[in-house]
UniProtKB/TrEMBL annotation:
InterPro entries: DUF4559 (IPR027897), P-loop_NTPase (IPR027417)
Protein name as annotated: NACHT domain-containing protein
Gene3D superfamilies: P-loop containing nucleotide triphosphate hydrolases (3.40.50.300)
Species name: Dreissena polymorpha
Pfam families, sorted: DUF4559 (PF15112)
Amino acid sequence: MASLSDVFTESERTNWLKAWLAIDIAKSGLELFVDNAPKILHSNINNAVLSSGSVACSCCHIANLLKCPSRGICKKREAYGLCISMHDTALKQPRQCPASVCNKVFVEIAKQHRYPDPSWKNTVANDWASSPWQIAKVYFPPDGYTENRSAQDTDFNGIVSFIMNCKHFNNMFSFPICPGKTYQPCLLTKTRAIGRVVRHSSTCKITDTDLQDIFTTLTGLLTDRKCLANELAAQEAVRKLAKLQTDVLKLKTDEIVELLEAAQNVLKKVANITETAVDEIRIYMENCRKDMDTFKQELSEHTGKCIQEIDENRRKFTESNYEQSCKDFQRRLMAHYNGTSSSVSLSNLDQSLDKRITDIYSTPKIHRIEIEKDGKRVKREQALTYKQIFYTGVNSNRRIYLQGEPGSGKSAFSAKLVHDWSHGIQLSSATPSEITAFDDVSTIQKIKFLFFITLRDSRGQTDVTQMIKKQLIDTTFSEDERADVYTLFVKIMNTEICLVLREGLDEWVPRDGSNLTEPCMAGFQNETCTILTTSRPWKLADERIKNSHIDILLEIEGISNPYAFSKNIIRCLIDHSKDLEESVIKFKSFVKDRKLKSLSSSPMLYTFVICTWVNTIEEEEHLKESSLCALYTTLLERLCKKANSTTGYFNNSNPPPVHFFSSTSYLQPNIAHLDKLAEVACKLLFSSERESTIVFSDITLSNYFSPDEFTLRKTFALTAGILTNRKDKSRTGSSNSFVHKTVQEFLAAYHIACNTYIIDDVRSRYLKLNNTSYLEISQVLTFLCGINISAANKLSALMNQYDVIHCDEYEYRNDDDTCYIGNGPCTFQRIIESGIREAVANQQEGIQLTLSHFNIDQSNIRELHGIWPTDTCNAHVLRVYQPRNYFLRSPARGESKSHFEFNLSSCHTLRQLYLSGSGILLRDTASSVSSEFPVCIVLNNARPVQSADTPPALTSIEHICLESVTCSSTCLRSLFSTLLTLNHKVRCALKYVITACVEESDIGTNAVIETGLENQFKMQSLENDCPGLWEALHGLNIKSLCLEFVYLNHQELFWQFLSSLTLEKLSVKMDLDIPSLCKGLDGRNLNDLSLSWSYEFQDWTANNLELLSECLSSLIQLETLSMSVRGDSPSLWEALRGLNIKSLSLSLEYRRGGLTESLSKFLSSLTQLKTLSISVFEDKKTQSVGDSPWSVYQESESEAGNVGRFYKGLWRVFVEKA
C-alpha cells in the first residue's frame, strides 16, 4: 500500500493529485448511472419513430442527414463551392432516408439536446439502430469522442457533459440543470468546472480550501436524493471520497503507478511548470516498480509453498464455521421469537396485558379441506397433530394454506407453532399427562430454520427473502454482522430444511404495478423449504391461486373446547382468592343464557367477552347482546374509557348516530373523536393506495386531519388503544395501524351508515380496482347490516354486480346432467348469510340484500328464504338441496318451521335451476295448504288460468336438473309448456324424479330432455317411465319430437301421448315392435320421419313388413324419410317400394355381396324422389388368433371387389333415376 503524500514534497501538488484521484473516483460512481441512460433514450426514440411495420435503417451516413453547410461542421469556400469536410463525396450528400426513419431519429435526437448545436461529428448514424452509445455521443463535447463505446472509456468531462446536455436527465436530479448566468450554477456545472481546473492547471497546485470545495461538490452530486443516493456505485464512490479526504484511503502500488502515469502525461503538456514535479513523479514511479518486482518474486515462491496448506485449512474452517454460524443463527432466531412471539395480548382492550402463549392456548379446531378433481372443496377430518399438517402419508406438504375468518385463531396458532419450534427440547420432555393435541414436537424439530414473517408489515414488498432480512436479520443482528449473515442466509436457503411461516396473506398488498397474488419465494429450494401461509378465506378464493399450487388446505374455525379455553383465560384474569372452577361454571351459564357459544369460532371475540364478563362480574347486568355490532360497540366504549373516563349519554335532545350507541356511557363525550377516526378508517380502507390501507405512516395519517387536530386525534386514538404505533425500520420513524383490522372495518361501516352517499364513491373508485375488491370488504358489509340495513342493501347490490361477473367467468359448467351443488355456497353468499344473521341479531327490518347465485341447504335456508322474494328478479342460479327427513328448527327463537316456499314466477333472469333431495316438492302454482315437504318450489304465482299479460316464468333458463324431487304431472306439464315457448335451447335432467299420480307414484324416473327452437322436444335415456310423466307430456305443443334410447314400461300410455301430438317431424332411435310403431304412426300428418333400429331386418316376419308398408303409405304428407338399419333384407326394400317421398336418407351396414337387387328396385320405385343420401358403415369382425397374415390379405383383396360391386350398383340406380 502507498500514500499520495509520499509522491510530492509540496502539499499543494499533493492536493492536486488528490483532486485528480477524486475526479476519477467520482467518475466511477457515475458510470453505471450514465451507462443505462443511452439504452432508455434509444428505446424511447425507437418507440416514437418506428411505427407499425417500419424497420430501422443502417445505410445512412450522418452527412446524409445534415444540410450543407452546417455551422461548425462543413468547410465551404464559396456559397456554391464544394464542401471539403463533411459532404466531400457523392455518397455523403444530403438526402432523405430511404426507409423514412433516420431523418426522424435525427429530429428526435435534436429535440432531446438542451442546446441547438449537437455534436454530430461524434456519431456514426449507420449504427443508431444497434448502438445506443452512438446516440449518446451527440450530447458530448464536439471533439475527441468519436472512438468511445461506453461510459468506462469516456472521460469525466464527457460524462458530465452528457448529463448536462441531454434532456433525458431533467427529472433525475433534485435541482434544475442550468449553466449559471441568470441562475446559480448547479452542481453539474460546478463539477464540470472542477474537471477543467484540475486537468488544465498551469501549476498543478490546489490550495487546501479549494480541495475541500472539490470534495464537497463531488459528494453533493453523488448523494443527490432524487436518484444517485440510491445507486450502489455512487454510494461506494462517496465512501472512497471520504477516506481520500481524511488520508485513510490506501492504494495498491499498481494503482499509484497508473494514477501517476496519467498525471505525468498532463504535466508534460504544461509548458511553464518546473521539471521538479516531473522528476519527483518519475523517481517515485521507478522505486515503486522495483518494489513491485521484488515483491512479486517473493510472493510467488511463498505462495507455492502455502497454497495447499491454506486450501485444506480453509475447507476445515469453512465447514466448522458454517455449522457454528448456523447454530448461532438458530439461537438468535429462537431468542428473537421468545421475545416477540411467545407472548400474546390477552385482549384488545389492553395490549399491554400479555400472557405466555402456553398459558392461554387451547387446541384449535382445524379441519383439512379436500380439493376434489372438479374443484369442489369438502371439509374432512380434524387435524390434531403437526404431522397431519406437514405430511400427507409419507409425502411432505411443501405449500400449506391455513384459512380462517377474522379472529378465528390464525395468529395464535402461528405463535404456538413458533413457540414449539423454539422450545422443542423442553416440550419433548413433558410428561404425557401435560400433552394434548399438537404434541408431536419431533415433527417440527426436523425443521432446522423457521422464518416467521408478518405480511402486514411487508406491504409493498414482493420478495420473501427481503422480508426476512428486514423483519428478522436486521432486527436480530448488528449492522456490522448483517453482511455475513446475509451470505449465510443465502446458503441456508439452498441447503437446509426450512419453514417459512407467512402470516396474513389477506393483509399484504404488492407494490404498484405488480400482479402477484402472493409474495415471491425466489431463492428457496422446493425440496427443502416448506411454506405455511395464513389468510382469510376470500383471499384464497382468488382464481389466480391455482389448486395445483396447494399441497394441503386447512381451515381453522376457532377452538375445540370453549370450556377449557375460557378456564385458561379466566385463570389469568381473576384474583387468586376466587374459586376458579366456580367462576368458570358461572361464565358457562352466562354464555348459555346469552346464546354466545357461537362466538367460540372467534377466539378474539370470545376472549373479549370473557374479559368484559370478568370486569363486570360484580355488576347485576352483563352483556345483553350477541350481535357483532353490539360486541364491538362495547369494545369501543371500553377503549374510549381508557382515554377519557368522563360519562355522557345520548337522549331525545341529543340522539345517538346509530341505535346501539343509545345505552352507552363513554361514547357520547368522545363522539367527535370517533366520528373522525371512523372517517379515516373508511378512507384508508377504500383507498386506491393499497399499500397504506392497513399499515400507514404519520404522513399518510396527517392527510386526513387538519394541522390543528392531527396531534389531538392521534393522541386520543393511541391512548384509547384504537390505534397502535410501533417502530418500523422500513419506514421513516414509525408506522400506525388500527388495533385490529375488524375494528377498522367496524368504524368504516359506522361511517358509511352515517354517510350513505359514500357508497357511490365505493363503486366508482374502489370496486373497480380488481375483480375481487368486492370480497375484501365483506366484513364491512356484515357490520353495515347490523347498523343500517338500508345502506347495506344498497352496498350488497353493488357487490353483487361484481360477483355476477366473477361467477360468470369461472362458474362450474355442468356436463354430466347431475344436480351439481358445487363447492358449497360461493364466498359472496357466505358474506350475505353473515349479513342476514347480523341484521336479525340487531332486529333490523327491511332486509333486502342482493344475491344472484343461491346455493341453499338445511344450514342456510332460513337466511336465504328471507331475501328470496326481493331477489327473484336478480337470481341467475338456484341450487336447493333438502333431504326429506331433516327437521328444521329456528336457532334464534326455538320455534319450529318445517315449510319454506320459493316462488319462481318472477325469475326472468334465472339460467340454472338445480333441485336435489326428497324433501323438495315442485308445484306449478302456489297453495295455502300446508305441505308435508320441507321445501316447495312454485313455478307460477297465479292459478292455471292466467291473464295474457302475465309473462311466463323462467324465460332465461338454460339448464334444469331435478334429482330425487317430487312433482305433479300438471307441474311437469307447466314446466315443459314454458320451455317450449322459449327461443333458445334448454337441457332438463330428471334423476329419480317421483311424479305424483294416482298409481305407481313411488317410481323414480330418469331422463334427459332438451327443448329448442320451433317447438323441438328431445327425450333420451328414459328409464322407469311412470304414468304421470306421459300425463304431463300429453297434448303438448310439440312440432318436432326426437326419442333416443327410450325404454318403456307403459307402451300404451306412450302411444296415447304420441297420438295426442300434432307433429310435423318425428325421429325414433329405439327398438320398438312393428305393430306398436305402426299403431302410433298410422295416418299421422308427418312430413319428416326418421327411424333407427339396432336389430336386423332378416328376423322380421312378412306380416310385420306388410304392416310397416301400409303404415308408411298412410303418411300422405310424408316428404322426408331417414332410416338406419343393420343388415340387408330384400323383403324390407320390397315393403317400402313406391313411397311418394321427395327426400331419402339411408344409413346401411355393408355386407358382402354388394347391392341387392331388391334395394335397387326400391330406389328405382321412388318416382318423386329429388334428394338421396346413403352412408355405409361396416361391422368389422375381430380377427381370430389363428388367422395368418396371408389369409387376411387375400380376404381384404376379395372384399375390395365386393365394395366395388356395391358402389357400381348404386351408380347404376343413379343413372336410371337421371
